[in-house]
């Protein structure tokens, strides 16, 4: 049996017609890192609140480490939460914040000190153990909040947008730290985020939610390369996946995929390949198309081009030198093995 088993959880709030969560089922192995992604209102917080016990599901069952917990009080569930808001006690030092829970649970002083020393070293907080939260940076506060969760050694870590209050650099740093501690502790973690980038870079598996319904469960690679529907294809990946009607595909490609003729074609920006028209040595096997470069965004190493093609604009990611391409007509091809087809 799986370590965490969520079976057919639904939640209907009073006075609402639609369910915030519909028949949500998921089995999580011990030590797995799961990211839950979805746009605002997709049911992420509802799921977390049901897991922590702050909300009761309308139906369904949850089992954690062989114990049914569906109706247990939050304090009896042995889960630690890390929020977007750090929720630290402002009048307590870093050390006091981290050890407070252990004190309440009457953990021996020696053990408290050992855990404090270990976790502050692991998370780079040794210099600030005696500092009050107001004198810490955002990244440090989030690390304290993480440290407090870690020393509890809970059965389950729940993280609710823990990086979203941090600037880009700190998001990377704290994200790395979360991953490193996760690997070290093999802590089973559910991480809620609206950011598909965070989910892709941190998780073993991703759950994509929309309107309370699971759209796909898969590894980051699976949800990126094999999205199960148009919503997942568009939600995962930046720049957004290119979409256009089948009738726009070059004839030769249409003939290759006759069974998809009623569908929408999708292709990620890195699977379109451009060549300057003057280029003579290019040996393309797929049919050549012509587009006009209308915009170039350089990201250092790679660029994203906007290509006007028929009456669509396609995004193309390239590592080529694009400095002379603005306004130019270019040849491009589709990597046919990467074409995706979705119902309209
Ligand atoms: P997310 O966290 O993905 O933004 P939520 O779980 O907060 O989504 O919300 C899912 C749906 O449930 C939304 O339609 C929201 O309006 C509704 N909802 C959330 N909490 C409540 C509540 N306490 N009462 C009524 N409706 C709620």
Explained architecture:
The chain has 344 residues and is of the alpha+beta class. The chain has 2 domains: 4-235, Rossmann fold (3-Layer(aba) Sandwich), CATH 3.40.50; 242-343, OB fold (Dihydrolipoamide Acetyltransferase, E2P), CATH 2.40.50.140. It has helices at 44-52, 94-104, 109-122, 138-152, 168-185, 196-202, 220-225, 230-235, 251-256; strands spanning 4-11, 21-28, 33-37, 59-64, 67-68, 79-82, 156-160, 189-193, 205-210, 213-218, 242-245, 264-267, 272-276, 289-298, 303-309, 312-318, 329-334, 340-342. The protein has a 6-stranded mixed sheet with strand order 6-7-8-3-9-10, with helices on both faces. A 5-stranded antiparallel sheet has the order 13-17-14-15-16, with no helix packed on it. A hairpin with a 2-residue loop joins strand 4 (59-64) and strand 5 (67-68). Helix 2 (94-104) runs parallel beside helix 4 (138-152) and helix 4 packs parallel to helix 5 (168-185). It is globular, with a radius of gyration of 24 Å. The mean pLDDT is 92. Bound molecules: adenosine-5'-diphosphate. InterPro entries: AAA+_ATPase, ABC_transporter-like_ATP-bd, ABC_transporter-like_CS, ABC_transpr_MalK/UgpC-like, Mo/tungstate-bd_C_term_dom, P-loop_NTPase. GO terms for molecular function: ATP binding. Keywords: ATP-binding, Cell membrane, Membrane, Nucleotide-binding, Translocase, Transport.
